[in-house]
């Protein structure tokens, strides 16, 4: 079965087989094969999402949001963008307000960077019960040992000091992520590097499912940021930008807050006087300029000058503020516009969730058929 979302048609090979006139059958089959092949060549179905545990920051932007907007530009791509509230609840069960209140924030961030509900389906994970149902079936195809080996989950468990009290839902969230991806038959998943193990887990589940029950699911590929664009360190230079480390610049930050954060950035602690030679490596201002700056020539001149000595931190920070404002100023303004009408945003998410549910329900039906548990037809 092939589900072509844009033209809204469902081709079922069984229909072709039940056609009585043999010649017509051949013509039909050829036509359908052509459409299928064309569909495969032309169309990507893309699924990705974020946990609504806070606003999105520049790390999310370079790690994933930018890729999504680029993919959306191609009208042949169909994007599903999910606010992953069910996944966020796996380690926030006692704190559901934190999750629900951030749904709007994440949606505003999506719209602000240019994700367009006319072209892409934006939806809320918990409103698609089919995803939870798929997870129940997939869980039977995955061993406890396999989940335990997932490096991202492993390090998250250590970071959060869960030990044996790790919530089971959290422990198995890579399996639930496989449901998110396969429910939409996504072939591409644009995510940050840290999500690589989730993609591998999904690929294994797809292989196991298709091998056991027949070819129903699509094996997805991850789309990762280009080299050097992946992990944006925090402004303190301490590893990844993250809410818990308090070292992030947020898409929603005002011009003032952004400037203050840049001014407090970690540079070279040994660069005390302007005339001292300074270090560029590990200096966050230059790290950010490398990621966001367009004028590479100017940046390499600044680096030279900084290394030689005679270039003050305030100067390079001012330049970085200009660079960031050029990219994020318009995003901030758009965000402020959208934030004026939260009801409209919730309505958009509701419509997106309805559309997404229709697609997930179709896949679930096929899954149950393949497993032979569609008892009542
Ligand atoms: N794990 C992702 C994050 O923390 C969110 C997510 C949930 C996701 N399901 C997904 C991403 C499916 C890609 C595909 O941001």
Account of the 3D structure:
The protein is mainly alpha-helical and 377 residues long. It has helices at residues 13-17, 22-42, 58-72, 85-89, 96-113, 129-139, 144-148, 151-159, 168-171, 173-183, 196-213, 255-263, 284-292, 296-308, 313-339, 342-371, and strands at 2-4, 9-11, 44-50, 77-83, 120-124, 188-190, 221-223. The strands form 3 sheets. The protein has a 3-stranded parallel beta sheet with strand order 3-4-5. Helix 5 (96-113) packs across helix 15. The chain starts with a strand and ends in a 6-residue tail after the last helix. The site of tryptophan has 13 residues, from strand 3 and helix 10.
Share in helix: 55-70%
CATH hierarchy class name of the largest domain = Alpha Beta
Q: H/E element string?
A: EEHHEHEHHEHHHHHEHEHHHHH
- Summed up, the domain count is 2
What can be said about the biggest beta sheet?
3 strands, parallel
Outline: elongated
Which residue ranges are poorly predicted, with pLDDT under 50 across at least 5 consecutive positions?
1-25, 33-41
Question: Could you tell me the number of beta strands?
Answer: 7
**CATH fold topology of the largest domain:** Rossmann fold
Strand numbers in spatial order across the main sheet: 3-4-5
Instruction: Kindly report the average pLDDT value.
Output: 90
- Distance between the amino and carboxyl termini: 17 Å
CATH architecture of the largest domain: 3-Layer(aba) Sandwich
- The portion of residues forming beta strands comes to 5-15%
- Which structural class do the helices and strands define? mainly alpha
Gyration radius from CA atoms, angstroms: 24 Å
User: Which hetero compounds are present in the coordinates?
Assistant: tryptophan
């Amino acid at each position: 079965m092939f589900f072509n979302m844009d033209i809204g048609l469902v081709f079922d090979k069984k229909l072709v087989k039940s056609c009585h006139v043999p010649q017509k059958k051949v013509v039909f089959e050829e036509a359908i094969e052509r459409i299928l092949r064309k569909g495969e060549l032309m169309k990507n179905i893309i699924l990705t999402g974020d946990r609504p545990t806070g606003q999105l920051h520049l790390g999310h932007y370079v790690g994933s949001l930018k890729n999504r907007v680029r993919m959306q530009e191609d009208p042949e791509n169909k994007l599903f963008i999910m606010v992953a509230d069910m996944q966020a609840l796996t380690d926030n069960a006692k704190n559901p307000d934190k999750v629900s209140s951030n749904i709007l924030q994440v949606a505003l961030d999506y719209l602000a960077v240019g994700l367009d509900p006319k072209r892409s389906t934006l939806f809320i994970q918990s409103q698609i019960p089919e995803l939870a149902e798929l997870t129940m079936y997939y869980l039977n195809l995955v061993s406890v040992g396999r989940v335990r080996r997932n490096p991202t989950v492993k390090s998250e468990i250590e970071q959060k000091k869960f030990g044996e009290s790790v919530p089971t839902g959290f422990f198995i969230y890579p399996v639930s992520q496989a449901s998110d991806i396969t429910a939409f038959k996504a072939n591409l998943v644009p995510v940050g590097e840290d999500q690589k193990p989730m993609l591998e887990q999904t690929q294994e589940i797809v292989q196991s499912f298709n091998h056991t029950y027949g070819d129903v699911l699509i094996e997805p590929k991850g789309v990762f940021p280009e080299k050097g664009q992946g992990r944006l360190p925090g402004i303190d230079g301490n590893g990844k930008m993250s809410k818990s480390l308090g070292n992030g610049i947020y898409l929603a930050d005002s011009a003032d807050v952004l400037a203050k954060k840049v001014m407090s950035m970690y540079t070279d602690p040994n660069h005390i006087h302007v005339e001292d030679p300074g270090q560029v490596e590990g200096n966050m201002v230059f790290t950010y300029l490398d990621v966001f700056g367009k004028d590479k020539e100017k940046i390499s001149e600044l680096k030279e000058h900084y290394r030689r000595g005679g270039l003050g931190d305030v100067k390079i920070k001012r330049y970085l503020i200009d660079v960031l404002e050029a990219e994020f100023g318009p995003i901030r303004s758009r965000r402020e516009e959208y934030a004026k009408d939260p009801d409209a945003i919730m309505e958009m998410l509701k419509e997106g969730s309805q559309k997404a549910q229709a697609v997930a329900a179709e896949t679930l039906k096929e899954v149950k058929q393949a497993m032979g548990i569609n008892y009542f037809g």
